[in-house]
Design goal:
By secondary structure, the protein is mainly α. It has 17 helices and no strands. GO terms for molecular function: chromate transmembrane transporter activity.
């Protein structure tokens, strides 16, 4: 690390980013780079770019992990803990306050209208989030048969988001594992062909000596947690939050299908409309989109539930960085990890896009679909920012209900 940055400075600077970080990961990355590279010179530009690449290899909220990593880079474990907490807490406090307002037993009618309007735009936000990821993922996949597999993974992820709910993560892992197998086989055949070209006698080459190649990332999924998720209480809430924080590749909107089935249909903590409100709040507040899980926690068990959900969801990010940051270079160089992400990436995009269907079907009234259409025009045709879209949709919802149109 370049210098011993005081913890008070880390708390101040990372807290400032936590307050100003409207707009999701792009805004977070921009603010962190401006602070650590351009203004303070704590990190070289290449170090910062390496941090982005490494944290994008991990499941969970990548921009949060980048905030933790950069704080670790300038002050070690203490810096990671202080910087990560300072980055997360402002958005968490704000989203819990808004959850208390929007999920109150008898909120004012205009509040309900704002929630219904903003929630109506969420499906368009999901589609926009998915389309933004397509170019880089296509470039990574390559051409030929790899492009065909990319489409298959995309469709599988979309179908899983619509049909499987919280088990979506299994499809993401399966896509990554399948791509490891395909690419390993292709490399093996390529090596065999090269060896045969070098051996005119046609003899079968001997087995390579030495240790075998890495077997790829092993996704250890605790699928059954007896006495935890089955209770429907705090144990179930912790399990849902854990899936969001530790098992969601791609972060951001891929958490939506992971949460919706559990929060709405399995445990009945929220209605469809309230879940849409939670997603909208996660978008318009500063900090990571994963804060959405704290609204689910608030609906399940009040402030305690919101704090528990946030703590469980963000704990893996701290652990990944604290125990893995020193090994990030090897992680980036691991062929199996790269192959896994090449397969899981399009499945994540499909899941994000697929989540738009149940989100749209959760709407109840024609005026909400009109708001959704305007949001799609704003985001997908005009390519304008997300936060103004949601604020505008909320304002349209207020106008709609004050004009006498029905509430969901």
């Amino acid at each position: 690390m370049t210098e011993q940055v005081p913890l008070a400075v880390i708390a101040k600077e990372w807290g400032r980013i936590g307050v100003l970080g409207f707009g999701g990961p792009p805004a977070h990355i921009l603010l962190l780079r401006r602070l650590c590279v351009e203004q303070r010179g704590w990190l070289a530009a290449s170090e910062f770019e390496d941090g982005i690449a490494a944290t994008n290899l991990l499941p969970g909220p990548a921009s949060t992990q980048l905030a933790i990593f950069t704080a670790w880079r300038v002050r070690g474990t203490a810096g990671a803990l202080v910087g990560g907490a300072a980055f997360i807490l402002p958005g968490l406090a704000l989203i819990l306050l808004l959850a208390a307002l929007f999920l109150a037993g008898e909120p004012p009618r205009w509040v309900l209208g704002a929630a219904a309007g903003a929630g109506a735009a969420v499906a368009a936000v999901a589609v926009q989030a998915a389309t933004a990821l397509v170019p880089a993922s296509l470039l990574r996949s390559g051409a030929g048969p790899a492009r065909v597999r990319w489409v298959c993974y995309l469709l599988a992820g979309a179908a899983a988001a619509v049909l499987t709910g919280p088990w979506l993560v299994l499809v993401l892992v399966a896509a990554g594992a399948a791509e490891i197998a395909f690419r390993r086989s292709a490399r093996r055949l390529s090596r065999t062909g090269d060896t045969e070209l070098r051996r005119p006698d046609g003899d079968t080459p001997p087995e390579a000596s030495g240790p075998s190649s890495p077997s790829g990332p092993r996704a250890v999924l605790p699928l059954l947690v007896p006495g935890l998720a089955a209770t429907g209480g705090l144990g179930a809430l912790a399990w849902v939050a854990f899936k969001v924080g530790a098992l969601s590749y791609g972060g951001g909107f891929v958490i939506i299908p992971l949460m919706q089935q559990d929060a709405v249909h399995r445990y009945h903590w929220m209605t469809d409309g309230q879940f849409l409100n939670a997603v909208a709040l996660g978008q318009i507040t500063p900090g990571p989109v994963v804060q959405t899980v704290s609204v689910v926690g608030f609906a399940a068990a009040g402030v305690l539930g919101g704090l528990l959900a946030a703590a469980v969801a963000f704990a893996p990010s701290f652990l990944f960085v604290l125990f893995g940051a020193a090994h990030f270079d090897r992680l980036r160089a691991n062929t199996a990890v790269q192959d896994f992400l090449t397969g899981a990436g399009p499945a994540v995009i499909g899941a994000i896009a697929g989540s738009a269907l149940p989100l749209a079907l959760a709407l109840h009234h024609p005026w909400q679909y009109a708001v959704l259409a305007l949001a799609a025009l704003w985001l997908l045709v005009l390519r304008r920012p997300v936060v103004p879209c949601l604020l505008g949709a909320g304002a349209l919802g207020v106008v709609a209900v004050l004009s006498g149109l029905p509430l969901p």
